[in-house]
Amino acid sequence: VNLRIPGPIPVPDDILETMSNPMINHRGPEFKEILFRVTDGLKQVFDTESDVYILTASGTGAMEAAIVNTLSPGDKALNATVGVFGERFGKIAELFGAKVTTLGFPYGTAIDPDKLREALNADPDIKAVLVTQNETSTGVTNDMEAVSRVVKGEFDKLLLVDGISSVCSIPMQTDGWGCDVVASASQKGWMLPPGLAFVSFSQRAWKAHAEATMPRYYFDMAMYRRYFEMGQPPYTPAVSLMFALDLALSKILAEGIGSVFERHASIGQMTRDGVRGLGLSIFPKEESIASNTCTAVAVPDGVDGTRLLTLMRTEHGVVLAGGQGSLSGKIFRIGHMGYTTSEDIEGVVRALSVVLPQVGFAAARARARRS
Ligand SMILES: Cc1ncc(COP(=O)(O)O)c(C=O)c1O
What is the pTM of this model? Predict the structure, then answer.
């Protein structure tokens, strides 16, 4: 099966195998060594000198951690959202009592830094800005450097980033761009199964933590910091996934993070070229904002998107993702983060070239050419 959803993605065999190693004492010396080594590796990938903690959770847990560790009920947050996951970030903040102003950009577009500036000028009491670096639901990557220039450079607000489908695949300068908390998750570019989430935590985030009164227990970063000093996690960790993380990071760092980013850029380009070559259009409004971890493709008029995905799966073993929320039936998505080869993408394009005529696409194009 060619699993091409935007996470989980296929995991290399040696990483899967390492998960069958016998259990070890998570409060013993062997685990301590692993914890210190992987934390050091995570910091290199996040490009930060600050803290990075490992949670046993999916990415949403890391988003919740970003909120509850830095904000208090009543705090004002600006949610600059370009899709479904951005909306989720705002919802979490609201649920825990933040006063959230939504700065929503149309699906398929990216954050406009000028609008961000306007929104921050309009309300000086805003404490934090929530941003999704790579919006997996629309296949759009925001320009974090430009966002940071406004949020940090001009207004010096707390910057909380969902980097779940970007960190380790698309450049993220956690310190360079002043990102106070960045969340990521194992089933994305990290080439791991789901189950681990990662959160970076800046000095500024720690300052906010000291004052933040949102309820938190499992995700209280103070516990992670206290136990880390002893070389331990606060709660029983996903030991098998930690073995896997250790090996994945050694592979990523051996390849070089710059090369990993380049590989994603070239696979992203290859995917976009491939679908365009079939006469399809990508969903993002501009090429420059198209994601290198997930390509969102517009379902052509008159084509039943569900049937398209069913035929891809049943006849070709290619598993793609549909659209979420209001994008259901309007787009489909091809995941190409982490362990993805050019052969994987060629397989997708080849299968699409067979299935598209079966769902009426080639016929529609021929009709359009005749008229
Ligand atoms: C950008 C983004 N944010 C949040 C999430 C949610 O992560 P999880 O499903 O691991 O909780 C995802 C996962 O698809 C994502 O891609």
Answer: 0.97
